[in-house]
Each structure stands twice: as C-alpha cells, then as structure tokens.
Design brief:
alpha/beta, eight-stranded parallel β-barrel, 10 helices, 25% strand, binds pyridoxal-5'-phosphate
C-alpha cells in the first residue's frame, strides 16, 4: 500500500456531499469538476483576517472558469491575468486587472492598454512596444515593472528568481527602466515581484517577503520615485501529498503587516491562485471497469490524465506521489482494499492513484480526486485521445 495526501476537511464525510448536494445529484454527466464556492469564500475570509490592509489578487491561470471568476469578483481586489484570453474573461467584472507574463503580443498589449489594465512589464523590449501601442491608441498606459529578484522562495515548488529568467527585468536594470517609464509620461504603477510558488513553510515565505520589501525599497530609492503599488507575489502552497501540512498564513500576516510601514505611500498586494481555489475543487469520475491483473485490482475510470494531469504526477513533479482520492459513493463502514485508480487513456502514465487503500468499489461507483480546483482542467491535455471535454460546475 502507498500513502495518499489528506482529504480536505470540507469533504471528509461519507457518503460525500459537495455544497450540500449528493454526488449522484451533481453527476448528471461524468466526468465532472465541482468547485465549492463556500470553500473559496472561507479561504478569502481567512486571508482578510490574517493580512488586513493588503490587497488580494486572484491569479486567473489557476482556474479561469467564468462562474468562479464572477463569484470571486466581489470578494477580491483584483485579477491577475496572463493572456488576452484570460483578460477577456475578467474585463466585465469591474475589478482592477494586471497583466503579467512573457511574450505579450502587440495585439494583447493593445487589448490591455485599451481596457486600462496595468501591464507588468517583463523586459525593456516589451516596454518599447507597450509605449508604441499606447501612442497609437492615444492612451496613457499603466505600467508596472516585473522584477527578476536576485533571491528565490525557499522550498518553493517552482522557483522563479535568483537566476537568468524569462520572467521580469533583472533587478539591477529596473531603476533605469522606471526612469524611462516616468520620462515617457506613462502612469507608473509600481513593482511586481514574484519569487516562487507552492511553498508550505511559512518561514520561507516570511523570508522571501522581507527580501521583496527590501528590494522594492532599494529600487524605489534608486529610481527616485515611490511605487503606488507593490505586488509582493504569492507562493502560498496547499498540502497535496502525504505528510504535508497546511500553511500557517496567520504567522505570515503577523510578520508582514508591520514591515509595510517602510513604504507609507504604497499599497501592497498579494496574488494567489491555488491557495484560494485548489482545495475547493473535486474531480468526479465514474468507474467504467473493475479488473484484476496479476493479483492487483484496477479501477478504470472515464477520465484521467486528460483532465487531471497534475494528479497523475505528470505536471512538474519528479517523484510520483498520490493526491488524496476517495470512493465518493461508498459508505463510511465499507470494507477496504488496495487498488490502483487509472483513467481510460492508452498510456501507463494515466494513473490517478497508485496502490491506495479505498473502500471496495466497482463499475458505476464514483471516484473523487481532491485538490482539483487549481491547475486541473486548464492545465490538462483534455483533447488527448479524443474523449469529450468534462463539465464544470460551481456550487
Ligand atoms: C502562476 C502565478 C501565480 C499563481 O501561483 P499559485 O501557485 O497558483 O498561487 C501568481 N503570480 C504569478 C506571476 C504567476 O505566474
């Protein structure tokens, strides 16, 4: 038997319900992603309590499902997008929007500047193009500089600083760029400093935020201008795997809030994706076949890596570990056995759970894969092998 990650508190009881609705009631077609808005609201309230006075931005790339964006709009201070497609999904929601990401095309800059969105500039070349687009449109562009810092977020699942990078402008070149933006009579919006993702150690985040603040202070000083906004990045992780602990964000807030007095005229924002929505999502997939092979039981489902690539260990992990899964249709007193849960694709990579202990299940039962609210469907190759696109629902 191999261990699996912990099932989020909200979904532990059997038979499982999501937003007060039974799995069979929700599952009019399988597979299905269900996002529980109550879980998202509770994460947002917890952030508000822990980090008072700090703006909360939602990083749309974690989950761009339109009803989810509409539900979040009144609860967050802004949306961070990374393409014109994401921008189109949030422009009507009436929130501040910033646009980061390398390789913004002229067409994307045009759409963003036309919509009054803040561009987080990734290079000097992009700055030239943004200024030219703004000139053509007769608009005063809102420009922030994304900084490639010289430090990185320790223990981060994905490190994005301290080295050569396609993201952001190397810190030492930032003051000159800010001066250039100011001289071009654009509206300078400040700095965006993102040092990494998926960290579970509060000390690492506290450290990285302290460095981020110092850097913002130093760059502002060198540029001779006070930044209206400093986006401190995010990096708040969630516990996917056995032994991982939920992040103590209260400790982060306690360390961070007093430090912000160093820049009294600046607003601060934290941008979060998975921490806000990851645990709110459940991927439901029905068992099509139960088979045994050489003494092992396989539960073969109607969806797998084509919809939930990350859970199969194929989205940026080195060692495959089990996400939390459950038999959603089981009762609390079912007998358990050791099984592997696989999807319908013709590849050994399509394994949602490897030799886990689950209640005995068969054809027609439903498997729930948790932690599916972020980087689920949109980060999966859903056209691979030609199965239908799964449905999504917000409850
Ligand atoms: C992807 C990304 C995020 C969101 O990361 P999470 O780990 O989901 O919180 C935030 N900011 C930037 C710049 C990103 O690229």
């Amino acid at each position: 038997m191999k261990p699996m990650g912990a099932i989020p508190q909200e979904f532990k009881s059997l038979p499982m319900t999501i937003g007060g609705r039974s799995v069979e009631e929700l599952l009019t077609s399988s597979p299905l992603f269900v996002y529980d808005s109550a879980v998202i609201r509770s994460r947002i309230s917890r952030f508000r309590a822990a980090c008072p006075g700090i703006d909360l931005h939602y990083a749309v790339k974690a989950n761009p499902f339109p009803p989810l964006l509409a539900a979040m709009a009144p609860l967050v201070d802004g949306f961070d997008v990374a393409s014109a497609g994401e921008l189109a999904r949030v422009t009507k929601l009436g929130k501040a929007v910033s646009f980061a990401g390398p390789g913004k095309t002229d067409a994307e800059l045009d759409a963003a500047i036309g919509a009054g969105v803040t561009i987080n500039l990734e290079s000097e070349g992009e700055t030239d193009r943004a200024l030219a687009v703004a000139d053509r449109l007769g608009r005063k562009p809102r420009l922030a500089v994304r900084v490639n810092p010289e430090f990185e977020l320790r223990g981060s699942g994905m490190r994005m600083g301290g080295r050569a990078s396609p993201f952001g402008v190397d810190a030492e070149r930032v003051p000159a760029l800010v001066k250039r933006i100011l001289a071009a009579d654009a509206e300078w919006r400040g700095f965006h400093i993102f040092a990494g993702s998926q960290a579970l150690d509060p000390a690492a985040i506290i450290d990285s935020q302290a460095h981020t603040l110092e850097l913002a202070l130093r760059l502002a000083d060198m540029a001779g201008a006070s930044p209206p906004l400093v986006n401190l990045g995010g990096g708040f992780g969630i516990p996917y795997f056995p032994g991982e602990q939920a992040l103590d964000i209260e400790a982060i807030g306690v360390a961070l809030t007093p430090r912000l007095d160093a820049l009294p005229d600046t607003r601060f924002a934290i941008e979060l994706g998975r921490w806000l929505v990851g645990e709110a999502g459940v991927y439901l997939t029905r068992i099509v076949d139960r088979k045994e092979s050489r003494g092992e039981v396989f539960l073969v489902c109607d969806g797998g890596l084509n919809h939930q690539l990350a859970a199969t260990g194929n989205l940026g992990t080195v060692v495959r570990r089990n996400y939390p899964v459950a038999v959603a249709t089981a009762s609390a007193d079912s007998r358990c056995e050791i099984v592997s849960v696989v999807g319908p694709l013709c590849t050994p990579l399509d394994r949602l759970a490897d030799q886990v202990e689950l209640p005995v299940a068969g054809q027609g039962d439903v498997i729930a894969v948790f932690m599916a609210g972020a980087y689920g469907l949109t980060a999966s190759p859903w056209e691979f092998l030609g199965h239908p696109r799964p449905a999504e629902i917000l409850v």
